[in-house]
Specification:
Elements (H helix, E strand, L loop, with lengths): L3 H8 L2 H19 L6 H11 L1 H9 L5 H11 L3 H13 L1 H13 L3 E3 L5 E3 L1 H5 L6 H18 L3 H8 L4
Helix pairs in contact: 2-7, 2-9, 3-4, 3-6
Length: about 160
């Protein structure tokens, strides 16, 4: 059986990334009735694709929230992983933009003049995926959408140690 991190590396592409970012945007909107700022999509990407962060997020219950999830890292003495998020964002800007572009061209999301990502629900619901690994990725994207919708940009920046 292939490990999840190896699977992620094999399927890390704009189509999957765009799809997962679309799920995040949809979940954010459903939980807050607001559209997420586009810059949040750049932060979501590393949280999905850094295996250690993915595993922590995947194993954390939704009510715990982003702050509680990141506190788990401190308890496990893995606090330096969170410092890696900003570097991953900077090193993968082009790939993240490709994911956003795919999501827009596929009709999953739209971006308005104010820089907010708008979910286009019907297109997202059409896709059915049967892979257990993809289902985990979907679950984490949804969880991040809920958690981010409960916080503002300053709080997210402080918790994840990123700059917008």
């Amino acid at each position: 059986m292939v490990s999840l991190s190896k699977e992620i590396k094999n399927i890390q592409n704009p189509a999957l990334g765009g799809y997962l970012l679309s799920i995040f945007v949809n979940e954010y909107y459903v939980n807050s009735d607001k559209f997420p700022p586009l810059q949040l999509l750049f932060v979501v990407y590393p949280l999905i694709y850094i295996n250690d962060l993915f595993e922590i997020i995947n194993s954390t219950k939704k009510p715990t929230g982003l702050r509680g999830c990141m506190d788990k890292l401190k308890e496990n003495k893995n606090n330096d992983i969170i410092l890696h998020v900003q570097t991953v964002v900077l090193n993968n800007k082009t790939q993240i933009m490709d994911c956003i572009r795919f999501a827009m061209l596929s009709g999953f999301i739209s971006v308005d003049k104010t820089g907010e990502a708008i979910p286009l629900y019907d297109r997202i619901k059409e896709i059915k995926i049967s892979s257990k690994d993809i289902e985990k990725l979907q679950k984490v994207s949804k969880k991040l959408g809920v958690w981010f919708s409960e916080l503002n940009l300053v709080e997210i920046s402080q918790i994840l140690k990123v700059r917008f």
